[in-house]
């Protein structure tokens, strides 16, 4: 089977906005008397805004104090603060190794997708100057179900016009790895503490086309031995 596409998560893979999320959530949580630290913030990686808020309220023992309308207001305050913080992003904020990888994927004819639960994904890509590098972006505006549900990765593959079995997904969050696996894609994890990823890497510096191509070939030895090339570029 030939590799036809690669689908990336955004936060922690393309750029790192986790600290910006933390600053925004910490401010909103403090306003309602809940203290969160960076260790707790790690639990919010890869899940939606409302799911993050639910975890924060549960952490502070205040779930019963906020109805749907008040929760929505809190989520909107958090997002407004986060959008302000996004102004600090520039093309230099793209994580190491990502730009050359995107170029090699494009040269090799790969379809390139994004699967992010962030409603701000398009704005982030524009701020980074790489919006045109992606053939399709599946974000929370298109998919209502959050990771670890595979819906957003299935939507990305559908938007790229490829089957999940023809794609690799790249994530830095446990919920994302579970979503990729549930979608029927091969999974690559950024961070050695992740469980269940087909390939684990320390950082995006190790995320090269040569490594992705070798990973794919190892999982599809019959296709490789039959002479079908999986689009490797400069491998």
Structure description:
The protein is α/β, with parallel strands linked by helices. It has two domains: 5-15 and 94-225, Rossmann fold; 18-88, Orthogonal Bundle (DNA polymerase, domain 1). It has ten helices and six strands. It has helices at 18-31, 38-41, 49-59, 68-85, 98-107, 121-128, 151-160, 174-183, 209-219, 221-225; strands at residues 5-8, 111-115, 136-138, 167-171, 186-190, 199-201. Helix 1 crosses helix 4 (68-85) and helix 3 packs across helix 4. The chain is globular and about 55 Å long. Residues 225-235 have low confidence and may be disordered.
First-last Cα distance? 18 Å
The value of Rg in angstroms is 18 Å
Number of strands: 6
Q: Return the CATH topology of the largest domain.
A: Rossmann fold
Described by strand count, sense and barrel closure, the largest sheet is: 6 strands, parallel
- By CATH, the superfamily of the largest domain comes out as HAD superfamily/HAD-like
Q: What is the structural class?
A: alpha/beta
Please give the oligomerization state of what you see.
single chain
Give the amount of beta strand, in percent.
5-15%
Helical proportion, percent range: 40-55%
Please tally the helical runs, counting DSSP H or I stretches of 4 or more residues: 10
The best one-word shape is globular
Q: Determine and state the CATH class of the largest domain.
A: Alpha Beta
As residue ranges, the low-confidence spans are: 225-235
Compact summary:
With 235 residues, the protein is α/β, with parallel strands linked by helices. The protein has helices at residues 18-31, 38-41, 49-59, 68-85, 98-107, 121-128, 151-160, 174-183, 209-219, 221-225; strands at 5-8, 111-115, 136-138, 167-171, 186-190, 199-201.
């Amino acid at each position: 089977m030939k590799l036809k596409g690669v689908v990336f998560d955004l936060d922690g893979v393309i750029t790192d906005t986790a600290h910006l999320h933390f600053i925004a959530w910490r401010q909103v949580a403090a306003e309602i008397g809940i203290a969160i630290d960076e260790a707790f913030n790690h639990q919010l990686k890869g899940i939606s805004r409302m799911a993050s808020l639910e975890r924060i309220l549960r952490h502070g023992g205040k779930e019963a104090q906020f109805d749907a309308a008040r929760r929505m207001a809190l989520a909107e305050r958090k997002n407004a603060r986060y959008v302000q913080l996004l102004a600090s992003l520039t093309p230099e904020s793209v994580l190491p190794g990502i730009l050359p990888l995107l170029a090699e994927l494009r040269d090799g004819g790969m379809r390139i997708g994004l699967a992010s639960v962030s409603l701000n994904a398009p704005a982030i890509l524009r701020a980074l100057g790489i919006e045109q590098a992606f053939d399709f972006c599946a974000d929370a505006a298109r998919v209502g179900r959050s990771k670890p549900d595979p819906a957003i990765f299935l939507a990305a593959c559908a938007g790229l016009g490829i089957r999940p079995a023809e794609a690799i997904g790249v994530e830095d969050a446990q919920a994302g790895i579970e979503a990729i696996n549930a979608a029927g894609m091969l999974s690559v994890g950024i961070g050695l503490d992740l469980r269940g990823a087909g390939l684990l890497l320390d950082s995006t510096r190790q995320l090269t086309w040569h490594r992705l191509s070798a990973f794919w070939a190892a999982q599809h030895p019959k296709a490789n031995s039959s002479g079908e090339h999986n689009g490797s570029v400069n491998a």
